[in-house]
Design goal:
Length: about 525
C-alpha cells in the first residue's frame, strides 16, 4: 500500500460543528470500546498503538512545534554573531568601526561559513531516530570548517601577523555555544516526539484491507497516529480495525469533533472504484485537511516509502525559498513582537475601558465567545462586553443591527471604534489568533435563518490560516454583521484572497490602514 502520487487538493472546511478539547476526545475514545449502540465489542484488538488519544494535540499546536526550527536557527545566528563580535572586539585595539578590514574579515567569513553550513546541511531538522551524539559531531565538523575558513582567509590577508590564537579561541567559543544550544534543541525535540507534537494524525476513509495493512505497519513503526476510520458501508464494517475504531460514515467525518486534530485524510479504498472515489472526494471537499489516495504497493520498499511520506513530520525546513512554514514563522514572530508592544502601550486604554464598562451597566467586563480558529479548531475569543448581560448572544444567532436595543451606551462607542476587540491581543499572544487574518466567526453564526457556513461552498477556505483582529476583508468594507448571503460571499471572497496572497508586507499594510479605514467608515454596523 502506498501513498498515491496524485494528491487531491481540497481547501475547504466543514460547516461548524460542536467542538471538543483533548480530554473530551479521550473520553470519546474510551467510549468507542463499546459498540455503536452500546454493546461490548467482540471484534478487533485492544485499542493501542496508533490510536493513542492521550497524546493528541490539535493541528495548530503541532504546527507551532514544527516551526521551532526557525527559532533554533535564529538563536544560533544571534549566538554566533555575539561571539564573533566579542572576539573581534577583544583583538582590536580601538573601536570596531575603525578596525582594519583584514582583522575583521576572518571572523566574519568563519561565522558565515558556520551559519551557512548549519543551514545547508539541514542541522535544524532533527530527523526521527537521529542520535544526539551524531548530531553534535556534525556540528563540530561545521565549526571546524568555519575555523578553517577563518584561518585560511586570515593567513592570506595578514601573512606573518596572522592571529592564530584569536581564531582558535573564537572557534572554541562557537563550538561550546552551539553544543549547549543543540543539546537543548535535541532534548526539546525528543520531548515533543514523546508528547505526539511531531507525530502526524490521520483518519482513514474505508474499513478495507488497505486500511488494515496500513494500521498494522503503523503499529510496527510507531510514527503515525491513526485516529479513526470512517466508512459509508457501515452496516458491514467491523467495529474496529487493528484496534482503531470505526467512528461513522464519510458524512460523519465532515462534522466530527476530531477534525481539528487531523493532519490528513487518507482514502483507503480501491482507486479502480472510480465512481466511489469521485463521490467521496466530492463530499470531502468541505474538509480543511489534505486528502490522499492510497493505492496497492508494489513490494515492501514501496510500502515503506508510502509510510515514510505519511509519517514525515520533520521540523520545518529552513532552506530554499519562502514556503508555508517560513511564512507562518514570520507571521508568528510579527504577532509576538507587535502584539506584545501593542498590549503594553494599550494597557492604560484597556484599563479605562474596563472601568467605564463596570460603571455603565451591571455584568462582567469581558465577553467570551466560542469561535472557529485555524483548521476548524474551537477557540475562546475575548472581547469587552458591549451588550447588556441578559442579552448576551454567544452563538450570534441574531446579528447586531442599527439602534440594537441590546447594546449598552458604552458598548455602542467601543463597537463603533472597534475598541471592544482589544482583549483579543491576549488571543494573539497565546497563538490562537493573529494580528491579521480572516475575522473569527461565532460557531453556528446565522445569516437570516440559515447558518452562514452553509451559504458559500468555499466558506471554510478562511480556516486555512489563523483568524485575525483585522484583515483584508475588514479594510475593504466587509466588517461587522453579515445580513445577506451576498454579504457572506463577499466576506469569503476577500478572506480567500488574503489567504492566497498573505505576506509580511501585506500584513503590515493592513495594520497601517486599519485604524483610518475603520474610523472613516461611519456607515458600517459594528
Amino acid at each position: 500500500m502506498t501513498d498515491a502520487v496524485t494528491r487531491l487538493s481540497f481547501d475547504v472546511d466543514p460547516a461548524p460543528a460542536g467542538g471538543q478539547d483533548a480530554s473530551g476526545l479521550r473520553r470519546m475514545a474510551a467510549e468507542t470500546s463499546l459498540g455503536r449502540r452500546g454493546e461490548a465489542r467482540t471484534t478487533g484488538t485492544p485499542r493501542r498503538g496508533p490510536f493513542r488519544p492521550e497524546v493528541w494535540l490539535n493541528a495548530r499546536e503541532r504546527h507551532a512545534s514544527r516551526l521551532a526550527a526557525h527559532y533554533f536557527r535564529a538563536f544560533d545566528v544571534l549566538t554566533v554573531t555575539a561571539v564573533t563580535l566579542l572576539c573581534a572586539w577583544a583583538t582590536t585595539p580601538g573601536p570596531l568601526l575603525h578596525a582594519d578590514a583584514a582583522q575583521l574579515a576572518p571572523f566574519g567569513l568563519g561565522a558565515l561559513t558556520v551559519l551557512g553550513l548549519m543551514r545547508s546541511l539541514g542541522r535544524y531538522r532533527f530527523a526521527r531516530g537521529q542520535k544526539t551524539s551524531l548530531h553534535l559531531a556534525s556540528v563540530a565538523g561545521v565549526v571546524a570548517a568555519g575555523a578553517g575558513a577563518a584561518m585560511a582567509s586570515g593567513w592570506a590577508l595578514q601573512g606573518a601577523d596572522a592571529q592564530w590564537s584569536a581564531w582558535l579561541v573564537w572557534s572554541g567559543l562557537v563550538l561550546v555555544s552551539l553544543y549547549a544550544l543543540h543539546m537543548g534543541w535535541s532534548d526539546m525535540v525528543g520531548r515533543w516526539r514523546a508528547s505526539g507534537a511531531l507525530t502526524p494524525n490521520i483518519v482513514l476513509v474505508g474499513a478495507t484491507r488497505r486500511a488494515e495493512a496500513l494500521i498494522r505497519d503503523a503499529l510496527k513503526r510507531r510514527d503515525l497516529n491513526v485516529l479513526g476510520i470512517f466508512d459509508d458501508r457501515l452496516a458491514r464494517s467491523p467495529g474496529a480495525v487493528e484496534g482503531v475504531p470505526v467512528l461513522g460514515t464519510a458524512d460523519d467525518l465532515l462534522t466530527h469533533r476530531m477534525t481539528p486534530y487531523v493532519d490528513r485524510v487518507v482514502l483507503a479504498i480501491d482507486p479502480r472504484a472510480e465512481t466511489r472515489v469521485r463521490e467521496l472526494t466530492a463530499r470531502l471537499r468541505t474538509l480543511p485537511n489534505e486528502v490522499t489516495l492510497l493505492v496497492e504497493p508494489n513490494g515492501e520498499a514501496e510500502t515503506r516509502s508510502a509510510l515514510d511520506r505519511l509519517a514525515a513530520a520533520p521540523l520545518a525546513d529552513v532552506q530554499g525559498p519562502v514556503d508555508r512554514d517560513r511564512r507562518a514563522f514570520n507571521k508568528r514572530l510579527q504577532d509576538m513582537v507587535i502584539g506584545l508592544i501593542a498590549l503594553v502601550l494599550l494597557a492604560p486604554v484597556m484599563a479605562l475601558i474596563a472601568l467605564v464598562i463596570r460603571i455603565d451597566s451591571p455584568g462582567p467586563i469581558f465577553f467570551r465567545q466560542r469561535r472557529h480558529g485555524f483548521n476548524h479548531e474551537e477557540i475562546v475569543v475575548w472581547k469587552f462586553r458591549s451588550m447588556k448581560q441578559e442579552a448576551a448572544d454567544a452563538t450570534a444567532s441574531r446579528q447586531v443591527t442599527h439602534d440594537d436595543d441590546r447594546v449598552t451606551r458604552v458598548g455602542r462607542f467601543i463597537r463603533k471604534t472597534s475598541l471592544d476587540e482589544l482583549p483579543q491581543l491576549l488571543n494573539v499572544i497565546t497563538g490562537e489568533m493573529s494580528l491579521v487574518g480572516p475575522r473569527p466567526h461565532a460557531i453556528g453564526m446565522k445569516t437570516g435563518h440559515v447558518e452562514s457556513a452553509r451559504l458559500v461552498a468555499e466558506y471554510a477556505h478562511r480556516h486555512r490560516i489563523k483568524p485575525g483582529m483585522t484583515g483584508w476583508a475588514a479594510v475593504n468594507g466587509s466588517r461587522g454583521p453579515l445580513h445577506t448571503a451576498q454579504d457572506v460571499r463577499t466576506r469569503v471572497r476577500l478572506d480567500i484572497e488574503y489567504v492566497e496572497r498573505q505576506s509580511l508586507w501585506m500584513d503590515l499594510w493592513i495594520m497601517a490602514i486599519t485604524v483610518p479605514v475603520l474610523l472613516g467608515d461611519r456607515a458600517a454596523v459594528r
